[in-house]
Amino acid sequence: MAGGAEEAVASGRVRPLGCSAVPTSTRAVALTFDDGPDPLFTPAILDLLAVWDATATFFVVGLGLAAHPGLVRRMAAEGHEVANHTLGHERLDRLDQDGVRAQLRGGAAAIEALSLGRAARPRLVRPPFGFEGPASRAELSTGGWEVARWRGCLERHQPKEGAVAQLVGGAHPGDILLAHDGGGPDRTATVAALPGLLAALAARGLAASSIGRLQA
Asked: What is the largest distance, in Å, between two alpha-carbon atoms of the chain?
């Protein structure tokens, strides 16, 4: 799953929309988690973020949200940003524009249904696996969506020794970093690596923040 956008771009199959960094004067990176909520891993990640006084953006899958709404309410209650990772985590490059629209709007509607205090439809979205096709590009560019990509991925660097230091060493304020709190694979290694990631960021004077806070 990690690196999907980079591989797709290299193959020439997509022309990515969106940004992999947020213009900011704050000494912080945007930490993001995809594919949750997952009752096996999301609570532990939320616990660690609380210990480190860090915030993040969680790109949640609508069907997972429907199964575990309490975890998403906890994200919002603890100051994290809840964003759209589609309704069913389907690859958007394999759908026609109606299908893409249904995935995007379905994911947004699932978030809206929780009444998390937002005034409008959530527009921040990350396409599953980073894949896009002509139909999804058309819908993303005309549907009022704000697409978030990433500059570095925690899982892509695991479990190589020194990989977290390498990831953080190349990070700049505003960079969007990707990790996962669900999605099927065992995310135990992600949970284990997170304290080291947050410590390494702190050592460089970089906080972990949500995309929304860096944009404010």
From this structure: 47
Say what the pTM is: 0.91
In angstroms, rounded to a whole number, what is the distance separating the alpha carbons of residues 105 and 122? 9
Instruction: Report the candidate in 82, 15, 11 with the shortest Cα–Cα distance to residue 42.
Output: 82
C-alpha to C-alpha distance for 131 and 41, rounded to whole angstroms: 25
Report residue 90: phi and psi, to 5°.
-90, 145
Domains of the chain: 4-215 (3.20.20.370)
The structure tokens listed for 75 are: 């994200």
The enclosing H or E element of 69 equals: helix 69-77
**Separation of alpha carbons 5 and 150, rounded Å:** 9
The residues annotated as belonging to the active site are 34, 180
Kindly report, residue by residue over 3-60, the tens digit of the pLDDT.
444 444 333 334 456 889 999 999 999 999 999 999 999 999 999 999 999 999 999 9
